[in-house]
Design a protein that fits this description.
Elements: H1 2-5, H2 14-22, H3 27-33, H4 36-40, H5 47-64, H6 77-88, E1 95-101, E2 107-115, H7 125-134, E3 139-145, H8 155-171, E4 174-182, E5 185-188
Parallel strand pairs: 3-4
Antiparallel strand pairs: 1-2, 1-3, 4-5
Length: 196
């Protein structure tokens, strides 16, 4: 951290500034989840240092993730979790995404469907299946995060999954799975044998 900061502040050198930041509320994870504007508000950080830290955290997230590339075959929910975990586990509100697949479960792409509140992400079949129809996807995987850190599905998660599976059947686009990503792991409806 001190190497990224390069210089200190009036109250001490780069090492002292780094230690103060790491010992602050939430430590390294809170810093990594912070927006550039939030980092700029920390004592001793200006726009350049905040931008450098944000870039370093983003590079770390990208390096830690096992990204699914276009054409990769999806082998299971573990692949989905590895692809999305670094981006979603520390997000403060729910995000709902779809992973688009062809008939052989090869990745076509992904799309963000909605971004919600701390505890809910409102989704409608129109927004979920729109990207799948545009990209001629044969199947999709539903993905969303739980900011609480607990991947256990809620009653609303179950009803949304059931409703979207029904809509997929009508459209001829199979909902392969619904994976909930959280700090403490993931929940796969398919892996759990959860018919919603």
């Amino acid at each position: 951290m001190a190497l990224l900061l390069r210089t200190g502040a009036r109250t001490g050198g780069a090492l002292q500034l780094a230690v103060r930041m790491l010992e602050g509320p939430g430590g390294l994870r809170a810093l990594a989840a912070a927006e550039v504007g939030e980092l700029e508000g920390l004592p001793g950080l200006g726009p350049a240092k905040a931008a450098s830290l944000a870039a370093a955290f983003e590079l770390g997230r990208r390096g830690a993730a096992r990204r699914l590339e276009r054409g990769d075959v999806l082998r299971g929910p573990g692949d989905v979790h590895r692809h999305f975990a670094a981006r979603l586990r520390d997000v403060a509100c729910e995000r709902f995404l779809v992973l688009l697949l062809d008939g052989r479960h090869r990745v076509l792409g992904e799309a963000t469907v909605s971004q919600g509140t701390l505890t809910a992400s409102l989704v409608h079949p129109r927004e979920v299946f729109g990207p799948a129809i545009r990209r001629s996807a044969a199947a999709i995987v539903l993905v969303h995060n739980h900011p609480s850190g607990d991947p256990t599905p809620s009653g609303e998660d179950r009803s949304v999954t059931a409703r979207l599976r029904e809509a997929g059947e009508l459209l001829g686009i199979r909902v392969v799975d619904h994976v909930i990503v959280a700090e403490r792991g993931y929940h796969s409806f398919e892996e759990a044998g959860d018919s919603a």
